[in-house]
Structures are given as structure tokens and as C-alpha cells.
Predict the structure.
Amino acid sequence: MSSDELKAHLEFFGELGVNGIRVEPLWRSRPLHEPSALPAPIAPAEPVEPAEPVEPAEPGAVQARVFASPADALIAIRVDLGECTRCKLHTLGRQQIVFGVGNPKADLMFVGEAPGADEDIQGEPFVGRAGQLLTKIIEAIGLRREDVYIANVIKCRPPGNRNPEPDEVGQCEPFLFRQIDTIKPKVIVALGKFAAQSLLRTTDPITRLRGREFRYRAAVLMPTYHPAYLLRTPSAKREVWEDMKRVRVILEGE
Ligand code: URA
């Protein structure tokens, strides 16, 4: 490991609040991915196709319209979404729609599951504790939160933070697809099991999905662990760091 790489590791773990890596010899000597921890083979250089098709049908998708800029196109998507009543979540206590935030021309996009309580109040994705960790993860690869785009599979908070239900996803995801197709990111990081399974139309566990790369709507999609999981399981941060280093390599043009 070069001194630059070591510095990046230390900065990442320092930023994310992980202590004691110097006394853990395994971190320095272990291969990048332990086969036992990762049932799926990893082929970072060659994007692999998911088993299921990942270009879902888009009921309700509008005719292509021409916009002066991606920012304008995102505004039009937001207008089309309106004060959405397409699914039952508008009757189940949502405060507001959490559309998405960031650079309309971002090369890197993060997709989470659904707004939580903080996001429901503030109207912005990933602003709670998990969101603050996500911001640090973004900064660990030399980007700022405003350089990337952040959205969720669904745009309204499910009651009690339960998982989104299929009808809710079905109504909402066409808007996410339009956001993706407008922003045209090079890399989409799917945060956590729900986002990864939902986007990839698979029931494979996140432990099988992370560490792999999928072609998805003209982007490379990389599933990784959700920041809320990292808050509960700090040891998983090292795998997310591996994923983020790979994201950085792709963004730099391999
Ligand atoms: N978890 C998510 O998946 N999305 C958010 O916006 C916040 C927490």
C-alpha cells in the first residue's frame, strides 16, 4: 500500500469515526475481499449483468420533452409529481415529498430506500444521522455533497419507517427513473438491501450484491451497505470504503 493509499484509508476511518485500525493486523494483510464474507465473485473491471432485466417498464412515463438543461428537466419532473396522491402514503402521515437533492449533472448518484423522520420534516434525503454519515462517505472520496445527486426509491416516508410496499414503489419509481435518465450519472450507488433489490429486480441478499457492478440505465450500479447499517455495524465500513474506492476509480475513467 502506498503512503497516499494509507493516508486515504486513515482519513476515511478518521472521518467515519473508526478507531484502532493500527492494532488490527488483519486490516493490513487481508485480501480486499474475503471469500467467506462475499459469496459472489467480484469482477470489478468487467461490469456483470444482473440475472433479471433491469430496464423496467415505466407506466405513466411521459413523452420525451426537450429541456434547456438537466436542472430544467428535473424541475419538470418535480412539477409532474405535484402534490402526489398516487399511493396511500399521502394518507399515512407524510409531511412532504422528498424529491432529491444535488447536482443535476452529477457523475455520481446515491439512491436510498425512502425518507425517514428527519427527511420528512426537512424535505431533503439523507439529512438524519445516516445522512450525516453518507456525507462523510462522499467527502472521503474527495467530493462534496453538492457534487453528487441523492434520491430515494420512494419519495414519501412510510409510517414507522416500514419498508415501502410494492404498490408504493410501482407508483413512485417512474419518477426516480426519470431523474436518473435526466442526470445521466456514470455511477449509481444503491444504498442498502431495499434500494439494490428494488432497482435490480432481484431478491439476492445485499451481501451477495455488494462488491459487484451492474449495468443500469447507462450507468454502472454498485450496491453497498446502507449508512444506517454502518451506524449499527461499524466494522462494515471497510467494505463500503472498498466500494467507494472503486467508485472513485470509475469516476476517474478507470
Ligand atoms: N434512509 C434512506 O434510505 N433514505 C433517506 O433519505 C434517509 C434514510
Notes: The pocket of uracil is lined by residues 112-116, 119, 125-126, 128, 130-131, 152 (CB under 6 Å). The radius of gyration is 18 Å.
